[in-house]
Amino acid sequence: MNKILLFMIGMLLFLTGCWDRIEIEDRGFVIGVAIDLPENESVEQHTSQEEANKPRGQARFLATYQFVNPAALSGGTNQGGGSGEPVFNLTTEGDTIMEINRSLATRTSRSPYLGHTKVVIISEEIAQSKHFANVMDFLLRYQEFRRSTQLMIAKEKARKIIEIKPDLEKLPVMYIQSVGQNNYRSARMVAPTEIGDVHHDLLAGSSYVIQRIVGSDKEVKVAGSAVFHGKDNAFIGWLGEEETEGLNFVKGELEAGMLKVQVEDNLIGYEIKGATRDITVDTSNIDNLKFTIDIKSEGNIPESLETLSWDRIDVLANVQEKVEEEVVRITEDAIHKLHGDFKTDAIGLGQYLSKNEPKLWEKIKDDWEEGKGYFGKSSITVNAEVEIRNTGVIIKSEPVQD
Fold first, then answer.
1. Which of 194, 192, 197, 168 is nearest to 181 (CA)?
2. Which of 27, 91, 246, 302 has its CA 20 to 30 A from that of 360?
3. How far is CA 352 from the centre of its chain?
4. 240 Cβ contact partners less than 8 Å away, ≥ 6 residues apart
5. DSSP letter at 37?
């Protein structure tokens, strides 16, 4: 009998439930976060000596959380007498992001929950400062954030982006996320960058890029990219839209897109249906590693502003050559910015050496982007091969005759 009693008491210890459980109806679901520096820079005047004596960070942050209003989405009414909008934003300032997160609980009846956050937008000011590493530390460390949460860098205030009011979408953050996932249609944006991707690059010491976003009152544009150094998480600079397109080509991460190419006296459109890259390297001189990147692409011609006879082999060959020249031009522009100006290997050549030349990589990895700067000393040659699969449903484009 005593053994049974002890067994029952022991089982009760394991059936106490979740001590920190919050009922779902009491949660405030945050779907987006925007992080800025305060307007008055980093130090806010305290209203009391007690506040002034509290521990402080080196900067203050301004964070805007976008909450979902389930009642408005379901067509119900707010018991609290709210406006009935499907989302509402709360903005708070604090010395740390976690302090901001906790202080929001004093302003809303529902405890903020970040487990469903879709997008975190970080301002250019934060990215350019040493505090970007602190923000990333919180995003990686805090258990509520999922590794699939998407990151974007705003070419302005992040708060301005998250406060847009799109005409056709109820949830601004979901609209922003959807635009950021259109890289399969546009070559001028990099693939969506997730928190887990940045963590992987930081552990590997690999430089990386994050999508750039700009916005107006009702819409956003995701194009171009922000470049970060993998060793210290420092912002290096921006790649423009065309340079980002070139980067996608040399990284072999281009899914689709459109190139406009000059042929004779007018333009034709080349619709990219796929692209691959192959890297080879001459390691005979460690102080001048010679990389060759061979790009292969295939696509269609959906538009031709130049009068051409597409059924002629020489015409098709000439257009393919012009497209190849354009691919080489935009990739060389991207390489010039990353290799020549930034000295930052967001191309992934170090990763290639790590996989294919491990002994050499062990010897030079600490001096790849820094120290002796083997990346900056290397040379990179790009070749392109284009195949046009389809020229459309007509084989000849001519002016209409009266």
1. 192
2. 246
3. 22
4. 224
5. -
pLDDT-based confidence at residue 317 (cuts at 50, 70, 90): very high
Residue with tokens 């929950």: 113
Give the start-to-end residue ranges of the domains of the chain: 24-45+55-239, 242-402
pTM of the model: 0.84
Q: How many CB atoms lie within 10 A of CB 361?
A: 16
Tell me how far apart the alpha carbons of residues 168 and 166 are, in angstroms, rounded to a whole number: 6
96-110 b/e (C-beta count within 10 Å ≥ 16 → b): bbebbbeebeeeeeb
Whether domain 242-402 has CATH 3.30.360.10: the reply is no
CB atoms within 10 A of CB 196: 14
Consecutive H or E run containing 127: helix 124-128
Q: Are 112 and 24 in contact (CB under 8 A)?
A: no
| First-last CA distance in the chain | 107
For residue 33, the one-letter residue type is V
